[in-house]
Amino acid sequence: MKDAFGLPQSLLVLGGTSEIALATARRLIARRTRTVWLAGRPSPGLDEAAAHLRDLGAEVRTVAFDALDPDAHEDALGKVFAEGDVDMVLLAFGTLGDQAHDERDPGAAVRVAQTNYTGAVSAGLVCASALQTQGHGSLVVLSSVAGERARRANFIYGSSKAGLDAFAQGLGDALHGTGVHVMVVRPGFVRTRMTAGLPEAPLATTPEAVAAAVELGLRRRAETVWVPGTLRVVMSALRHLPRGVFRRLPV
Ligand SMILES: NC(=O)c1ccc[n+]([C@@H]2O[C@H](COP(=O)([O-])OP(=O)(O)OC[C@H]3O[C@@H](n4cnc5c(N)ncnc54)[C@H](OP(=O)(O)O)[C@@H]3O)[C@@H](O)[C@H]2O)c1
After folding, report:
1. Atom in ligand 1 nearest the alpha carbon of residue 187
2. Least packed by Cβ within 10 Å: which of 38, 77, 246, 248?
């Protein structure tokens, strides 16, 4: 169960090698999280991530999970919930793709959309239903500012995040009053392997800063979290710029 401050004792990470998710897990283990499930594509990286969190004192297990295989989600995630209550699910998987390449390769673009959007619709619904059966828990979804307004430079990724964000908001409304809390997290540019080698955007931040914002959001039972918080104002202005002006911005 969560403590009086809304922090989880048990955590399920979807996308178990995500740098943002692992920074969040480390932070929560330092508070009160004792059990962690890392769901992800089996790899040495997933095992290393589990071993590292074990060294911090948590009981950690891994489970095979592929966002691109929605038919297997019910079984894979059902196994986790069958082992005991999960206080928090962190939906962290995602892929940036390669916009220039993917515009010429529709199959690759579809894989970005299927990972980030339809994979999340499937896994999100499976987890939401299990959390509802428990009667408590938080589903924390890593969306992105990229979903706020599609940019020329990454509209394939951005559109998939827009879909994910809208889905998570609607799910949060559907679960309102059930005891299950959905929190949409919208980071800007975060320095992780996902953005390695890309020119840094203004207000760039770190996985640790996202983790801190997630903790604060849980304590406040927030529905939306921007990281850094100033992006809420910046994006509200950008969202309303006329198309012709927005198109000319170097973003
Ligand atoms: N970095 C940023 O600037 C930024 C900003 C805003 C939002 N976000 C979002 O935050 C989340 C975490 O990103 P990150 O920066 O921590 O990136 P990351 O370290 O590259 O993590 C991405 C995660 O997604 C997993 N993944 C990719 N395809 C998958 C699939 N088909 N099935 C299961 N797992 C899959 C990866 O697993 P493998 O190890 O198997 O590849 C990895 O665990 C993503 O949703 C990302 O879109 C990131």
Report:
1. 6
2. 248
Q: Convert the pLDDT of each residue in 105-115 to its tens digit.
A: 999 999 999 99
Nearest CA residue ID for atom 10, ligand 1: 142
What is the whole-number distance in angstroms between the Cα of residue 20 and the centre of ligand 1? 8
Per DSSP, what are the bridge partners of residue 64? Answer: 40
pLDDT digits (tens, 9 = 90+) for 209-227: 999 999 999 999 999 999 9
Catalytic positions, please?
157
What is the SS3 assignment for 216-245?
Answer: HHHHHCCCEEEECCCHHHHHHHHHCCCHHH
Rounded to two decimals, what is the model's pTM? 0.98
Closest atom of ligand 1 to 45 CA is 39
Q: Residue ranges per domain, the chain?
A: 10-248
Spatial separation of the C-alpha atoms in residues 216 and 150, rounded to whole Å: 28
Residue nearest ligand 1's atom 35 by CA: 93
Cα(244) to centroid(ligand 1), Å: 32
Yes or no: say if 31 and 25 are a contact pair by the CB < 8 Å rule. no
First-residue to last-residue Cα distance in the chain: 43
